[in-house]
Amino acid sequence: MSLYQSLGIRALRCVDPEAAHGLALKALRFGLVPAPGVLTSPRLKTTLAGMELPNPLGLAAGFDKNAEVLHPLVKSGFGFVEVGAVTPRAQPGNPKPRLFRLTEDRAAINRFGFNNLGMKAAAAKLAARPKSGVIGLNLGANKDSPDRAADFAQVLANCGAHLDFATVNVSSPNTEKLRDLQGGAALSGLLSGVIATRDRLDRKIPVFLKIAPDLTDDEIAEIAEVATQTGISGIIATNTTLSRDGLKSPRRNEQGGLSGAPLFEKSTRVLARLSELTEGGMPLIGVGGVSSADQAYAKIKAGASAVQLYTALVYGGMGLVKNIVTGLDDLLEKDGHATVADAVGTGRGKWL
To answer: Per the residue annotation, which of 76, 171, 172, 233 is the catalytic one?
Structure first.
């Protein structure tokens, strides 16, 4: 990390976390962050649910909620970018403060509550997206919606023409009873509606399901079964956790979802279990606690075809992207893997 980047990160940590997030978006917009462009190699190129990625490291949803900085994000070295979550109608989210740094734990807690400008605003931004890059949208439901299941399909219908993939997010802990939609019958109905909407698009983009880490083995098995039956393209494991085990920060008891370093083991175990249940036949995206090439590689070996991060950027800055991607290339070469796909699931047993 350069001295300039280090000073910038330190300065942002002196600012309220949500305000710092806004400043980070502005820095991207004005070209004040590293922009290495496409990072790739023959080893790093990978296929995810039919999408050709230059490398397997993606940006998780939540950073660019309203698709405001698509052009700089595509230039930042990520293999793919997920924006949102977006709901049919604009909503302010939960009262502030709603984002907290847990510096001692290299983590964060948020209780945003799907604050966003709504699908119409997102569609306008996505329509002007860069032609290069792989861009997806995290689909959400309005807090006061009478039919949350229909909300996901509605957002996809309005924005799908501009996307490379979409994610059904039923795993945020910050919208009351949203996680109830992870149950078998409710999830099956919801996903069937989204898939039917996807099938009416001019281009049938992949649809992923993002799940919570706070699930029992039986619940994970039920989700794997529903995912297979409904024909979704893959699963993202996982969203934030409600667990507070082992935290040191004085902010540890704030309400909301915990992300960052403490989530790594918990989310990787869910990932490995899904890989076992689906026998490696369904693309999985590993997210939760990734802040190094070693951790990204561990997710891949646990069963992930691709990996996402977000919270690590709070502590490592955008320069972390290049470090992880190039480091991952080195690790694949060291182990004699010609491609990312060759390494997927090779270390799954460690996490079961």
So the answer is: 172
Strands of the chain (E only): list them.
Answer: 46-48, 51-53, 57-59, 80-86, 99-102, 107-110, 135-139, 165-169, 207-211, 234-237, 257-260, 284-287, 306-309
Please state the pTM of the whole predicted model: 0.96
Neighbours of 231 (CB within 10 A): 12
Residue 75 tokens read as 């230039």
Token couple for 320: 């972390």
pLDDT by residue (tens digit) across 195-222?
999 999 999 999 999 999 999 999 999 9
Place of tokens 């709901």: 87
CATH number at residue 65: 3.20.20.70
What lies within 8 Å, CB to CB, of 38 at 6+ separation is 54, 77, 132
Omega before 85 within 30 of 0, i.e. cis:
yes
Concerning whether 172 is annotated as a catalytic residue, the answer is yes
Q: Which domain holds residue 175?
A: 3-351
Q: Could you give the number of structural domains in the chain?
A: 1
Residue 56 · residue 13 · CB < 8 Å: no
Burial of 326 (0-12, 13-18, 19+ CB in 10 A): middle
Closest by CA to 55, choosing from 134, 146, 157, 110, is: 134
